[in-house]
Amino acid sequence: MKNKINYLAILTFYIIAIVLRYLTNKTALLNSLPDNFLKVILKGIGPAAGALIVFTVFKIKPVLSLKGNYKTLLAPFLLYWAVPILLISAVAWFINGSIPVIAVSAVLVYGLLEEIGWRGFLQQELKSLPGFLNILIVAILWFIWHLNVDLTGTNLLFFGILLLGSWGIGKVADSTNSLLAVSAFHSLNNFFPAINNRNLTIIIILLSFWIIALIIRKKQQTKARIHTRQ
């Protein structure tokens, strides 16, 4: 367990994340870019850039990776990225006659860039804190990073979602160590700009599929540990 928190690394990470968030979301910096896919990605690049810089400058070894504790990279990719891309694209094709592979992929990449920072760095750097305090700090910093901190009912609800997300995605991070997994759970809130019965059904299907996969994996890991001890 990590004992010492590098507060300077956290401050450096957060300043970079906030500055890039402001530049990419509150200024005209990206207006000249013709590629909407690239625009979406760059709007979430702050946490990833901040984390990668502090990993390098402060010589912090990342705990999470794309593969995580799966045997191959293909396993988490198929489970957490291929499934939502195929499901959402199939539903869109059936309803609208379109296949939004690029749009869904952009959401997943955006979520990945955020998660490199929030779970990949910040949650791990605060591991020595009590669990709820870790979750609360991550949620507060994550909320402020969105640069929309007016205390309206909508924003308070949004903070509650981030608090719940920090707990749930944190559990996924601890279980899989996979950035692909945590970015997929993160993206559940971003796949659809509006919630209706169809979109909610897709979210429930994806969430149920992933939770069942995690439960089965945990049971397999437990059996493997028991077998190893014997």
TrEMBL record:
Alphabetic keyword roster: Hydrolase, Membrane, Metalloprotease, Protease, Transmembrane, Transmembrane helix
Transmembrane segments: 7-24, 36-58, 78-111, 131-149, 199-216
Domain CAAX prenyl protease 2/Lysostaphin resistance protein A-like: 100-192
Record carries keyword Transferase: no
Record carries keyword Cell membrane: no
Molecular-function GO terms, alphabetical: metallopeptidase activity
Pfam families per the UniProt record, alphabetical: Rce1-like
Highest taxon above the source species: Bacteria
Protein name: CPBP family intramembrane metalloprotease
Organism: Polluticaenibacter yanchengensis
Species classification: Bacteria, Pseudomonadati, Bacteroidota, Chitinophagia, Chitinophagales
